[in-house]
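Just wondering, can you check both lines?
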Amino acid sequence: MTTTAEAPPAEAPWRRLNPRMLLVHPVQEVVRAAPALLGLLIAGSNNGHGNLWALAGVAIAIGAGTLRWFTTSFRITPEQVQVRRGLLRRQLRAVSRDRVRTVDVSANPLQRVLGLVRVTVGTGRSDRNSDGGLRLDGLDAVEAGGLRDTLLHDRPGAADAGGAAASPAGTTPGAALAEAAADLTRPAPTETEIARLRLAWLRYAPFTLSGIVTVGAIGGFAINAANDAHLDPRRVGPLGDLGDALANMPAAGLVVALLAAVVVVVALFSTGGYLLAFWGFRLTRHSGGTLHVARGLLSTRATTIEERRLRGVELSEPLLLRWAGGARCVAIATGLRVGRGAERGGSLLFPPGPRGEARRVAAEVLRTGDPLAAPLTPHGPRATRRRFTRALAGGVAIVAAVVVLAAVVHWPTWVWAVSAAILPAAAALAADRARSLGHAVTATTLVTRIGSLVRRRAMLTREGIIGITLERSFFQRRAGLTTLTATTAAGRQAYAVPDVPDAEALAVCDAAMPGLLDPFRAGRDTGPA
Protein backbone atom coordinates (compact mmCIF):
# COMPACT_ATOMS: atom_id res chain seq x y z
CA MET A 1 0.00 0.00 0.00
CA THR A 2 1.44 3.31 -1.05
CA THR A 3 0.60 6.61 0.67
CA THR A 4 1.26 10.06 -0.70
CA ALA A 5 1.97 12.89 1.72
CA GLU A 6 0.11 16.11 0.97
CA ALA A 7 2.33 19.12 0.42
CA PRO A 8 1.80 21.92 2.95
CA PRO A 9 -0.06 24.93 1.55
CA ALA A 10 2.20 27.53 0.01
CA GLU A 11 2.84 30.57 2.17
CA ALA A 12 1.40 33.85 0.89
CA PRO A 13 4.13 35.92 -0.81
CA TRP A 14 5.16 39.37 0.32
CA ARG A 15 4.05 42.12 -2.07
CA ARG A 16 4.96 45.76 -2.52
CA LEU A 17 2.60 48.68 -2.84
CA ASN A 18 1.60 49.77 -6.32
CA PRO A 19 4.64 51.10 -8.24
CA ARG A 20 2.72 54.29 -9.03
CA MET A 21 3.25 55.25 -5.39
CA LEU A 22 6.83 56.13 -6.43
CA LEU A 23 5.24 59.31 -7.79
CA VAL A 24 3.23 59.93 -4.60
CA HIS A 25 5.61 59.18 -1.71
CA PRO A 26 8.29 61.70 -2.77
CA VAL A 27 5.67 64.46 -3.14
CA GLN A 28 4.25 63.62 0.30
CA GLU A 29 7.68 63.77 1.89
CA VAL A 30 8.48 67.14 0.26
CA VAL A 31 5.17 68.60 1.48
CA ARG A 32 5.75 67.20 4.96
CA ALA A 33 9.25 68.71 5.03
CA ALA A 34 8.11 72.11 3.69
CA PRO A 35 8.62 73.99 7.01
CA ALA A 36 12.16 72.58 7.35
CA LEU A 37 12.94 73.41 3.71
CA LEU A 38 11.74 76.97 4.22
CA GLY A 39 13.98 77.21 7.28
CA LEU A 40 16.98 75.98 5.27
CA LEU A 41 16.25 78.56 2.58
CA ILE A 42 16.09 81.40 5.09
CA ALA A 43 19.13 80.19 7.06
CA GLY A 44 21.24 79.78 3.93
CA SER A 45 20.28 83.18 2.52
CA ASN A 46 22.72 84.85 4.92
CA ASN A 47 25.74 83.35 3.13
CA GLY A 48 24.24 83.13 -0.33
CA HIS A 49 23.79 79.35 -0.33
CA GLY A 50 20.08 79.24 0.54
CA ASN A 51 19.05 77.74 -2.79
CA LEU A 52 21.66 74.98 -2.55
CA TRP A 53 20.61 74.08 0.98
CA ALA A 54 16.96 73.99 -0.05
CA LEU A 55 17.75 71.80 -3.09
CA ALA A 56 19.73 69.43 -0.88
CA GLY A 57 16.77 69.22 1.51
CA VAL A 58 14.40 68.49 -1.39
CA ALA A 59 16.73 65.73 -2.63
CA ILE A 60 16.82 64.16 0.83
CA ALA A 61 13.01 64.28 1.08
CA ILE A 62 12.63 62.68 -2.36
CA GLY A 63 15.11 59.96 -1.42
CA ALA A 64 13.21 59.27 1.80
CA GLY A 65 9.95 58.97 -0.12
CA THR A 66 11.49 56.57 -2.63
CA LEU A 67 13.06 54.50 0.13
CA ARG A 68 9.67 54.32 1.83
CA TRP A 69 8.26 52.39 -1.14
CA PHE A 70 11.20 49.98 -1.37
CA THR A 71 11.09 49.17 2.35
CA THR A 72 7.31 48.60 2.63
CA SER A 73 5.64 45.28 1.81
CA PHE A 74 2.52 43.42 2.86
CA ARG A 75 0.75 40.10 2.52
CA ILE A 76 -2.67 38.62 3.24
CA THR A 77 -2.67 35.16 4.82
CA PRO A 78 -5.75 33.11 5.74
CA GLU A 79 -5.28 34.24 9.35
CA GLN A 80 -3.63 37.70 9.24
CA VAL A 81 -2.99 40.93 7.38
CA GLN A 82 0.73 41.72 7.75
CA VAL A 83 2.70 44.87 6.90
CA ARG A 84 6.41 45.36 7.35
CA ARG A 85 8.26 48.61 6.80
CA GLY A 86 11.47 50.41 7.73
CA LEU A 87 15.15 50.05 6.94
CA LEU A 88 17.21 50.82 10.04
CA ARG A 89 14.28 50.23 12.37
CA ARG A 90 12.38 47.28 10.93
CA GLN A 91 8.74 47.04 11.96
CA LEU A 92 6.22 44.25 11.41
CA ARG A 93 2.54 44.80 12.14
CA ALA A 94 0.01 42.00 11.95
CA VAL A 95 -3.76 42.12 12.35
CA SER A 96 -5.79 38.98 12.81
CA ARG A 97 -8.48 38.79 10.15
CA ASP A 98 -11.13 37.85 12.69
CA ARG A 99 -10.39 41.20 14.40
CA VAL A 100 -11.21 43.28 11.32
CA ARG A 101 -14.13 45.58 12.08
CA THR A 102 -14.10 48.26 9.37
CA VAL A 103 -12.34 49.01 6.10
CA ASP A 104 -11.81 52.68 5.21
CA VAL A 105 -10.83 53.53 1.62
CA SER A 106 -9.63 57.10 0.95
CA ALA A 107 -7.69 58.92 -1.77
CA ASN A 108 -6.12 62.38 -1.97
CA PRO A 109 -6.21 64.30 -5.29
CA LEU A 110 -2.83 62.98 -6.48
CA GLN A 111 -3.80 59.40 -5.70
CA ARG A 112 -7.11 59.84 -7.54
CA VAL A 113 -5.28 60.99 -10.67
CA LEU A 114 -3.10 57.86 -10.53
CA GLY A 115 -5.97 55.49 -9.75
CA LEU A 116 -4.69 54.68 -6.25
CA VAL A 117 -6.28 54.56 -2.81
CA ARG A 118 -5.30 54.20 0.82
CA VAL A 119 -6.88 51.31 2.73
CA THR A 120 -7.14 51.51 6.53
CA VAL A 121 -8.20 48.34 8.33
CA GLY A 122 -9.98 49.05 11.64
CA THR A 123 -9.54 46.47 14.38
CA GLY A 124 -11.95 47.54 17.09
CA ARG A 125 -9.68 49.88 19.03
CA SER A 126 -11.25 53.33 19.07
CA ASP A 127 -9.22 55.06 21.78
CA ARG A 128 -8.05 58.59 21.23
CA ASN A 129 -4.34 58.15 21.76
CA SER A 130 -3.46 55.12 19.68
CA ASP A 131 -4.26 53.87 16.25
CA GLY A 132 -5.27 50.23 16.45
CA GLY A 133 -5.72 49.92 12.69
CA LEU A 134 -3.40 48.95 9.86
CA ARG A 135 -2.79 51.13 6.80
CA LEU A 136 -1.92 50.17 3.22
CA ASP A 137 -1.11 53.47 1.54
CA GLY A 138 -0.98 52.82 -2.17
CA LEU A 139 -3.17 50.10 -3.66
CA ASP A 140 -4.90 50.02 -7.01
CA ALA A 141 -8.53 51.17 -6.64
CA VAL A 142 -9.94 47.96 -8.16
CA GLU A 143 -7.72 45.76 -6.03
CA ALA A 144 -8.75 47.68 -2.91
CA GLY A 145 -12.42 46.93 -3.59
CA GLY A 146 -11.72 43.20 -3.76
CA LEU A 147 -9.58 43.37 -0.63
CA ARG A 148 -12.36 45.16 1.26
CA ASP A 149 -14.88 42.45 0.33
CA THR A 150 -12.43 39.72 1.29
CA LEU A 151 -11.61 41.15 4.71
CA LEU A 152 -15.18 42.02 5.68
CA HIS A 153 -17.12 39.13 4.21
CA ASP A 154 -14.52 36.44 3.44
CA ARG A 155 -16.76 35.29 0.58
CA PRO A 156 -15.80 32.10 -1.30
CA GLY A 157 -14.18 33.06 -4.54
CA ALA A 158 -13.26 36.55 -3.34
CA ALA A 159 -9.93 37.90 -4.52
CA ASP A 160 -7.01 37.06 -2.29
CA ALA A 161 -3.79 38.99 -1.94
CA GLY A 162 -2.57 37.85 -5.32
CA GLY A 163 -5.78 38.77 -7.09
CA ALA A 164 -6.69 35.14 -7.94
CA ALA A 165 -9.55 33.08 -6.59
CA ALA A 166 -8.74 31.58 -3.23
CA SER A 167 -9.39 27.88 -2.65
CA PRO A 168 -8.86 26.00 0.62
CA ALA A 169 -5.92 23.62 0.70
CA GLY A 170 -6.85 20.12 -0.32
CA THR A 171 -9.97 21.09 -2.30
CA THR A 172 -10.56 18.70 -5.20
CA PRO A 173 -11.20 20.04 -8.74
CA GLY A 174 -14.77 18.71 -8.60
CA ALA A 175 -15.45 20.50 -5.32
CA ALA A 176 -13.92 23.68 -6.70
CA LEU A 177 -16.19 23.51 -9.76
CA ALA A 178 -19.23 22.94 -7.57
CA GLU A 179 -18.26 25.88 -5.40
CA ALA A 180 -17.81 28.09 -8.48
CA ALA A 181 -21.24 27.02 -9.76
CA ALA A 182 -22.76 27.91 -6.40
CA ASP A 183 -21.15 31.36 -6.61
CA LEU A 184 -22.74 31.90 -10.02
CA THR A 185 -26.20 31.02 -8.73
CA ARG A 186 -25.83 33.08 -5.54
CA PRO A 187 -27.97 36.27 -5.79
CA ALA A 188 -25.99 39.44 -6.36
CA PRO A 189 -25.72 41.75 -3.36
CA THR A 190 -28.36 44.47 -3.26
CA GLU A 191 -27.88 48.08 -2.27
CA THR A 192 -30.40 50.32 -0.52
CA GLU A 193 -29.79 54.05 -0.41
CA ILE A 194 -30.46 55.65 2.97
CA ALA A 195 -29.31 59.23 2.36
CA ARG A 196 -27.72 61.36 -0.32
CA LEU A 197 -26.37 64.94 -0.15
CA ARG A 198 -28.74 67.68 -1.27
CA LEU A 199 -27.56 71.14 -2.27
CA ALA A 200 -30.23 72.67 -0.01
CA TRP A 201 -28.20 71.43 2.95
CA LEU A 202 -25.51 74.01 2.16
CA ARG A 203 -27.51 76.52 4.20
CA TYR A 204 -26.34 74.67 7.32
CA ALA A 205 -22.64 74.97 6.42
CA PRO A 206 -22.08 78.48 7.92
CA PHE A 207 -23.43 77.26 11.26
CA THR A 208 -20.73 74.59 11.59
CA LEU A 209 -18.01 77.25 12.12
CA SER A 210 -15.47 74.90 10.55
CA GLY A 211 -14.11 77.91 8.63
CA ILE A 212 -12.76 79.50 11.82
CA VAL A 213 -9.78 77.14 11.86
CA THR A 214 -9.08 77.73 8.17
CA VAL A 215 -9.32 81.53 8.51
CA GLY A 216 -7.07 81.46 11.57
CA ALA A 217 -4.46 79.30 9.83
CA ILE A 218 -4.44 81.47 6.69
CA GLY A 219 -4.33 84.68 8.73
CA GLY A 220 -1.46 83.42 10.86
CA PHE A 221 0.49 82.29 7.80
CA ALA A 222 -0.06 85.67 6.09
CA ILE A 223 1.10 87.61 9.16
CA ASN A 224 4.22 85.46 9.55
CA ALA A 225 5.03 85.75 5.84
CA ALA A 226 4.64 89.53 5.98
CA ASN A 227 6.94 89.72 9.01
CA ASP A 228 9.58 87.51 7.39
CA ALA A 229 9.47 89.60 4.21
CA HIS A 230 9.53 92.86 6.22
CA LEU A 231 6.38 93.89 4.40
CA ASP A 232 4.16 96.62 5.82
CA PRO A 233 0.55 95.93 4.73
CA ARG A 234 -0.21 99.64 4.99
CA ARG A 235 2.08 100.25 2.01
CA VAL A 236 0.05 97.92 -0.23
CA GLY A 237 -2.43 100.09 -2.17
CA PRO A 238 -5.83 98.46 -1.46
CA LEU A 239 -4.86 97.37 2.05
CA GLY A 240 -3.57 100.85 2.85
CA ASP A 241 -6.79 102.47 1.64
CA LEU A 242 -8.84 99.99 3.66
CA GLY A 243 -6.77 100.68 6.77
CA ASP A 244 -7.24 104.44 6.38
CA ALA A 245 -11.00 103.98 5.95
CA LEU A 246 -11.23 101.83 9.08
CA ALA A 247 -9.09 104.28 11.05
CA ASN A 248 -11.51 107.12 10.28
CA MET A 249 -14.59 105.16 11.39
CA PRO A 250 -16.12 105.63 14.87
CA ALA A 251 -15.33 102.90 17.40
CA ALA A 252 -18.84 101.37 17.35
CA GLY A 253 -18.93 101.31 13.55
CA LEU A 254 -15.45 99.78 13.42
CA VAL A 255 -16.48 96.93 15.75
CA VAL A 256 -19.63 96.24 13.73
CA ALA A 257 -17.72 96.32 10.43
CA LEU A 258 -15.03 93.94 11.69
CA LEU A 259 -17.58 91.52 13.14
CA ALA A 260 -19.57 91.54 9.88
CA ALA A 261 -16.41 90.90 7.86
CA VAL A 262 -15.42 88.00 10.13
CA VAL A 263 -18.90 86.47 9.88
CA VAL A 264 -18.91 86.69 6.07
CA VAL A 265 -15.39 85.28 5.69
CA VAL A 266 -16.02 82.42 8.15
CA ALA A 267 -19.33 81.60 6.42
CA LEU A 268 -17.62 81.46 3.02
CA PHE A 269 -14.79 79.24 4.25
CA SER A 270 -17.23 77.00 6.16
CA THR A 271 -19.30 76.53 3.02
CA GLY A 272 -16.20 75.74 0.98
CA GLY A 273 -15.02 73.24 3.58
CA TYR A 274 -18.47 71.66 3.64
CA LEU A 275 -18.38 71.13 -0.12
CA LEU A 276 -14.86 69.67 -0.01
CA ALA A 277 -15.69 67.26 2.79
CA PHE A 278 -19.22 66.13 1.90
CA TRP A 279 -19.60 66.50 -1.87
CA GLY A 280 -21.06 63.28 -3.27
CA PHE A 281 -22.08 62.07 0.20
CA ARG A 282 -24.03 58.84 0.02
CA LEU A 283 -25.03 56.37 2.75
CA THR A 284 -26.15 52.93 1.60
CA ARG A 285 -26.94 49.57 3.16
CA HIS A 286 -25.77 46.40 1.44
CA SER A 287 -27.34 42.97 1.65
CA GLY A 288 -24.10 41.58 3.05
CA GLY A 289 -24.85 43.32 6.34
CA THR A 290 -22.73 46.44 5.86
CA LEU A 291 -23.21 50.20 5.77
CA HIS A 292 -21.21 52.11 3.16
CA VAL A 293 -20.44 55.85 3.41
CA ALA A 294 -18.81 57.66 0.48
CA ARG A 295 -17.99 61.38 0.32
CA GLY A 296 -15.41 63.96 -0.73
CA LEU A 297 -14.69 66.31 -3.64
CA LEU A 298 -10.90 66.54 -4.04
CA SER A 299 -9.98 63.87 -1.49
CA THR A 300 -12.49 61.02 -1.46
CA ARG A 301 -13.31 58.67 1.38
CA ALA A 302 -15.34 55.48 1.48
CA THR A 303 -15.97 53.72 4.80
CA THR A 304 -17.57 50.30 5.14
CA ILE A 305 -19.01 49.35 8.54
CA GLU A 306 -20.27 45.90 9.43
CA GLU A 307 -23.69 46.25 11.03
CA ARG A 308 -22.90 43.52 13.52
CA ARG A 309 -20.13 45.84 14.80
CA LEU A 310 -22.58 48.72 15.20
CA ARG A 311 -23.28 49.53 18.85
CA GLY A 312 -25.54 52.53 18.41
CA VAL A 313 -25.97 55.96 16.88
CA GLU A 314 -25.39 59.45 18.23
CA LEU A 315 -27.20 62.64 17.19
CA SER A 316 -24.95 65.67 17.62
CA GLU A 317 -26.34 69.22 17.69
CA PRO A 318 -23.77 72.01 18.18
CA LEU A 319 -25.34 75.20 19.50
CA LEU A 320 -25.43 77.25 16.29
CA LEU A 321 -26.46 74.25 14.19
CA ARG A 322 -29.25 73.54 16.67
CA TRP A 323 -30.53 77.11 16.39
CA ALA A 324 -30.66 76.63 12.60
CA GLY A 325 -32.69 73.43 13.01
CA GLY A 326 -29.83 71.15 12.02
CA ALA A 327 -28.01 68.13 13.37
CA ARG A 328 -25.50 65.49 12.32
CA CYS A 329 -25.38 61.76 12.95
CA VAL A 330 -22.38 59.56 13.81
CA ALA A 331 -22.02 55.83 14.30
CA ILE A 332 -21.08 54.18 17.57
CA ALA A 333 -19.15 51.24 16.17
CA THR A 334 -16.07 49.25 17.07
CA GLY A 335 -13.07 49.98 14.89
CA LEU A 336 -13.87 53.65 14.28
CA ARG A 337 -11.69 56.29 15.94
CA VAL A 338 -13.43 59.37 17.30
CA GLY A 339 -10.44 61.26 18.72
CA ARG A 340 -10.01 63.48 15.66
CA GLY A 341 -13.62 64.39 15.27
CA ALA A 342 -16.52 62.69 13.64
CA GLU A 343 -15.94 64.05 10.14
CA ARG A 344 -12.31 62.93 9.99
CA GLY A 345 -12.64 59.81 12.10
CA GLY A 346 -14.79 57.86 9.62
CA SER A 347 -17.82 57.52 11.92
CA LEU A 348 -19.99 60.11 10.16
CA LEU A 349 -23.36 58.79 8.99
CA PHE A 350 -25.04 62.10 8.13
CA PRO A 351 -23.39 65.50 7.54
CA PRO A 352 -24.75 68.73 9.07
CA GLY A 353 -28.27 68.94 7.68
CA PRO A 354 -31.95 69.10 8.63
CA ARG A 355 -32.68 67.70 12.07
CA GLY A 356 -35.65 65.69 10.82
CA GLU A 357 -33.53 64.06 8.12
CA ALA A 358 -30.80 63.24 10.66
CA ARG A 359 -33.39 61.57 12.89
CA ARG A 360 -34.72 59.57 9.94
CA VAL A 361 -31.21 58.37 9.06
CA ALA A 362 -30.60 57.35 12.69
CA ALA A 363 -33.83 55.35 12.74
CA GLU A 364 -32.94 53.67 9.42
CA VAL A 365 -29.49 52.69 10.69
CA LEU A 366 -30.87 51.36 13.99
CA ARG A 367 -33.76 49.66 12.12
CA THR A 368 -36.15 51.11 14.71
CA GLY A 369 -37.46 54.56 15.60
CA ASP A 370 -38.18 53.74 19.25
CA PRO A 371 -34.96 55.32 20.64
CA LEU A 372 -35.86 58.59 18.88
CA ALA A 373 -39.56 58.59 19.75
CA ALA A 374 -39.18 57.48 23.37
CA PRO A 375 -39.91 60.31 25.84
CA LEU A 376 -36.88 61.17 27.95
CA THR A 377 -37.10 61.09 31.72
CA PRO A 378 -35.90 64.43 33.20
CA HIS A 379 -33.36 64.34 36.01
CA GLY A 380 -35.31 66.56 38.38
CA PRO A 381 -34.80 69.83 40.26
CA ARG A 382 -31.72 68.70 42.17
CA ALA A 383 -29.80 68.07 38.93
CA THR A 384 -30.95 71.48 37.65
CA ARG A 385 -29.77 73.15 40.86
CA ARG A 386 -26.32 71.58 40.47
CA ARG A 387 -25.96 73.07 36.99
CA PHE A 388 -26.89 76.55 38.14
CA THR A 389 -24.62 76.28 41.19
CA ARG A 390 -21.56 75.28 39.18
CA ALA A 391 -22.16 77.76 36.37
CA LEU A 392 -22.85 80.77 38.60
CA ALA A 393 -20.04 79.92 41.02
CA GLY A 394 -17.54 80.02 38.17
CA GLY A 395 -19.03 83.25 36.80
CA VAL A 396 -18.93 84.96 40.21
CA ALA A 397 -15.28 83.94 40.67
CA ILE A 398 -14.34 85.46 37.29
CA VAL A 399 -16.22 88.72 37.96
CA ALA A 400 -14.67 89.01 41.44
CA ALA A 401 -11.17 88.53 40.00
CA VAL A 402 -11.80 91.24 37.38
CA VAL A 403 -13.12 93.65 40.02
CA VAL A 404 -10.04 93.13 42.21
CA LEU A 405 -7.69 93.62 39.27
CA ALA A 406 -9.60 96.73 38.18
CA ALA A 407 -9.17 98.23 41.64
CA VAL A 408 -5.46 97.36 41.84
CA VAL A 409 -4.47 98.29 38.27
CA HIS A 410 -6.99 101.16 38.05
CA TRP A 411 -8.81 99.82 35.04
CA PRO A 412 -11.77 101.81 33.70
CA THR A 413 -15.12 101.14 35.34
CA TRP A 414 -16.61 99.70 32.16
CA VAL A 415 -14.17 96.76 32.26
CA TRP A 416 -15.68 95.12 35.33
CA ALA A 417 -19.17 96.27 34.31
CA VAL A 418 -18.80 94.39 31.03
CA SER A 419 -17.44 91.35 32.85
CA ALA A 420 -20.71 91.20 34.82
CA ALA A 421 -22.38 90.04 31.59
CA ILE A 422 -20.79 86.66 32.32
CA LEU A 423 -23.42 85.99 34.99
CA PRO A 424 -26.56 86.05 32.79
CA ALA A 425 -24.65 84.11 30.12
CA ALA A 426 -23.71 81.46 32.71
CA ALA A 427 -27.31 81.28 33.91
CA ALA A 428 -28.57 80.80 30.34
CA LEU A 429 -25.99 78.06 29.77
CA ALA A 430 -27.01 76.29 32.99
CA ALA A 431 -30.69 76.44 32.04
CA ASP A 432 -29.98 74.99 28.61
CA ARG A 433 -27.84 72.21 30.08
CA ALA A 434 -30.64 71.37 32.51
CA ARG A 435 -33.19 71.22 29.67
CA SER A 436 -30.90 68.88 27.71
CA LEU A 437 -30.65 66.30 30.51
CA GLY A 438 -32.71 63.18 29.96
CA HIS A 439 -32.58 59.43 29.57
CA ALA A 440 -34.70 56.44 28.56
CA VAL A 441 -34.44 52.68 28.28
CA THR A 442 -36.26 51.02 25.39
CA ALA A 443 -36.53 47.37 24.46
CA THR A 444 -33.22 47.55 22.58
CA THR A 445 -31.33 50.71 23.59
CA LEU A 446 -30.15 52.94 26.39
CA VAL A 447 -30.75 56.58 25.46
CA THR A 448 -28.96 59.48 27.13
CA ARG A 449 -28.94 63.17 26.21
CA ILE A 450 -26.56 65.77 27.64
CA GLY A 451 -24.80 68.99 26.66
CA SER A 452 -25.51 72.56 25.67
CA LEU A 453 -22.73 73.93 23.47
CA VAL A 454 -22.87 70.51 21.81
CA ARG A 455 -26.03 68.57 22.65
CA ARG A 456 -25.60 64.83 22.14
CA ARG A 457 -28.28 62.17 22.15
CA ALA A 458 -26.53 58.80 22.34
CA MET A 459 -28.61 55.70 21.56
CA LEU A 460 -26.53 52.74 22.71
CA THR A 461 -27.75 49.22 22.00
CA ARG A 462 -28.20 47.26 25.20
CA GLU A 463 -26.37 44.24 23.76
CA GLY A 464 -23.37 46.51 23.15
CA ILE A 465 -23.08 47.52 26.83
CA ILE A 466 -20.29 45.58 28.53
CA GLY A 467 -20.52 47.23 31.95
CA ILE A 468 -22.15 49.95 34.04
CA THR A 469 -20.45 52.15 36.61
CA LEU A 470 -22.33 54.00 39.36
CA GLU A 471 -20.42 56.92 40.89
CA ARG A 472 -21.26 59.57 43.49
CA SER A 473 -19.09 62.49 44.53
CA PHE A 474 -19.29 64.10 47.97
CA PHE A 475 -21.74 66.75 46.76
CA GLN A 476 -23.78 64.20 44.81
CA ARG A 477 -24.20 62.07 47.93
CA ARG A 478 -25.57 65.10 49.79
CA ALA A 479 -27.98 65.76 46.93
CA GLY A 480 -29.00 62.11 46.54
CA LEU A 481 -27.76 61.91 42.95
CA THR A 482 -25.73 59.32 41.02
CA THR A 483 -23.87 59.37 37.70
CA LEU A 484 -24.43 56.19 35.70
CA THR A 485 -21.86 55.42 32.99
CA ALA A 486 -22.42 52.70 30.41
CA THR A 487 -19.19 51.34 28.93
CA THR A 488 -18.82 49.77 25.50
CA ALA A 489 -15.99 48.83 23.14
CA ALA A 490 -17.08 51.43 20.59
CA GLY A 491 -17.25 55.18 20.02
CA ARG A 492 -16.17 57.18 23.05
CA GLN A 493 -16.31 53.93 25.09
CA ALA A 494 -18.20 55.59 27.97
CA TYR A 495 -21.66 57.18 27.82
CA ALA A 496 -22.83 58.93 30.97
CA VAL A 497 -26.27 59.52 32.44
CA PRO A 498 -25.26 62.24 34.93
CA ASP A 499 -26.97 63.35 38.13
CA VAL A 500 -29.81 60.83 38.26
CA PRO A 501 -31.71 60.29 41.54
CA ASP A 502 -30.30 57.26 43.32
CA ALA A 503 -33.41 55.09 42.93
CA GLU A 504 -33.70 55.98 39.26
CA ALA A 505 -30.03 55.06 38.66
CA LEU A 506 -30.65 51.58 40.07
CA ALA A 507 -33.81 51.21 37.98
CA VAL A 508 -31.96 52.22 34.80
CA CYS A 509 -29.17 49.77 35.57
CA ASP A 510 -31.66 46.93 36.13
CA ALA A 511 -33.51 47.77 32.91
CA ALA A 512 -30.38 48.10 30.76
CA MET A 513 -28.53 45.07 32.16
CA PRO A 514 -30.93 42.86 34.13
CA GLY A 515 -29.29 40.98 36.97
CA LEU A 516 -26.10 43.05 37.01
CA LEU A 517 -26.66 44.33 40.56
CA ASP A 518 -28.00 41.08 42.04
CA PRO A 519 -24.62 39.94 43.43
CA PHE A 520 -24.26 43.28 45.24
CA ARG A 521 -27.70 43.30 46.78
CA ALA A 522 -27.17 40.07 48.71
CA GLY A 523 -30.82 39.89 49.71
CA ARG A 524 -31.21 43.56 50.66
CA ASP A 525 -31.68 46.79 48.78
CA THR A 526 -28.59 48.93 48.76
CA GLY A 527 -27.77 52.25 47.11
CA PRO A 528 -24.67 52.78 45.01
CA ALA A 529 -21.49 53.04 47.01
Summary: DSSP finds 19 helices and 20 strands in the chain. Confidence is low (pLDDT under 50) at residues 1-8, 126-130, 155-185. The domain at 437-521 is CATH 2.30.29 (PH-domain like).
